[in-house]
Specification:
Blueprint (H helix, E strand, L loop, with lengths): L4 H14 L3 E5 L5 H7 L7 E6 L2 H13 L6 E5 L2 H11 L5 E6 L6 H10 L3 E9 L5
Parallel strand pairs: 1-2, 1-4, 2-3, 4-5
Helix pairs in contact: 1-2, 4-5
Family: Belongs to the class I-like SAM-binding methyltransferase superfamily. Cation-dependent O-methyltransferase family.
GO molecular function, one term: S-adenosylmethionine-dependent methyltransferase activity
Pfam families: Methyltransf_3 (PF01596)
């Protein structure tokens, strides 16, 4: 979903507080929350965001480029459950310090289980969910 001003401000505050090096966002929509978080990442940090809708991916990439964050924020297209599996195969030892779960609410439990199964969250990592309880 589209992040509002208050939610964007909250996400920026979380990123500033936790100072994550690797951020994963599950569910990009138009990239507003990715841009909000990406705008306050440390210089050596990066954010990967997953989105299944081709049109949303296109819009998100355009907005990310307009925000000049294309070197920090990367959009991966595909079903998030499949994309998570692909991330594990690409970098089996990569852990995320901050994961923002904002995709199809019916799969939150599946995303959580996959994140835990593959140990994607770092030891002191933070998992934030949007509009849901696990």
């Amino acid at each position: 979903m589209l992040s509002g001003g208050l939610q964007s401000k909250f996400m920026r505050q979380l990123i500033k507080f936790f100072k994550p090096k690797n951020v994963l966002e599950i569910g990009s929509f138009t990239g507003c929350s990715a841009i909000a978080m990406g705008s306050c990442l440390l210089p050596d940090a990066k954010l990967t965001t997953l989105e299944m809708d081709t049109q949303c991916v296109k819009v998100a990439r355009e907005y990310i480029e307009m925000a000049q964050l294309q070197d920090k924020v990367f959009v991966k297209e595909g079903l998030a459950l499949n994309s998570l599996g692909a991330l594990v195969k690409e970098s089996p030892s990569l852990k995320y310090d901050f994961i923002f779960l904002d995709a199809d609410k019916g799969n939150y439990k599946n995303y959580y289980e996959l994140i835990m199964k593959h140990d994607l969250l770092s030891d002191h990592g933070v998992l934030v969910t949007d509009n849901s309880t696990l």
